Amino acid sequence: MKILKLFFFIALLYTTANAQITKGNWLVGGDANFSSVKNKSETGDEKFNDFRINPNVGYFFMDKISGGLQVNLVFTNTNPGNDSTKASSYGFAPFVRYYFLETDERINIFAEANYSYRIGKTGSSDNINWNGYGFKAGTVLFFNSSVGLEFSINYVDTTRRIDNFNINTIFVGFGFQIHLEKK
């Protein structure tokens, strides 16, 4: 079974080898990142450890410019240690991405902006809604004309809607993107 999966992945890489960041092509992939935030307030200090997985799909409506939708899966541990609370949330984030260098460059630089909305739950509590926006910039290294490895610096401003609790986070991320050619 593992050999079949490996064969499928290699076949996918070679069948899409002529596509990249040009109009009419698709972007499929995602990234993962980890952040640790300490919040100081009048009521006490809180620490948040977040692990995020963000699969996405996008479409190049112009050369070097894509728009699409990202799914956000966030796993949070608040105040790690004896008094910890674990939470998870999921949501959606429409995005727009721009690549700065020419379409045939092996290494390229990109910037992305998004708006996100998430729904989460902490233990037995009711659903908690979050919304916010984010920016990221980074470098993508293309292994071939279709598959790229990304490294990015991210900024996210998120607000918990129930009490207007706001978190601003800067973190690094990495991910893969596959650029599929429209046939």
Structure, explained:
With 183 residues, this protein is mainly beta. The protein has a single domain (2-180), classed as Beta Barrel (Porin). Helix content is 8%, strand content 68%. It has one helix at 2-15; strands spanning 26-41, 44-62, 65-78, 85-99, 107-122, 128-142, 147-160, 165-180. It has an 8-stranded antiparallel β-barrel with strand order 1-2-3-4-5-6-7-8. The chain is elongated. Keywords: Signal. Pfam families: OMP_b-brl (PF13505). Residues 1-19 form the signal peptide.
Please identify the oligomeric state.
single chain
- Count of beta strands: 8
Portion of residues in helices? under 10%
Mean pLDDT across all amino acids:
84
Strand content: over 45%
| Intertermini distance | 29 Å
For this structure, what is the CATH class?
Answer: Mainly Beta
CATH overall fold name: Porin
Shape: elongated
The count of domains is: 1
Q: Pairing-aware structural class of the strands and helices?
A: mainly beta
Secondary-structure element string: HEEEEEEEE
**Total DSSP helices:** 1
Radius of gyration: 18 Å
Low-confidence segments, given as residue ranges, are 13-19
Across the major sheet, the strand order is: 1-2-3-4-5-6-7-8
Named CATH architecture: Beta Barrel
Could you describe the largest sheet, including whether it forms a barrel?
Answer: 8 strands, antiparallel, barrel
Protein name: Outer membrane protein beta-barrel domain-containing protein
Domain Outer membrane protein beta-barrel: 9-176
Keywords: Signal
Signal peptide: 1-19
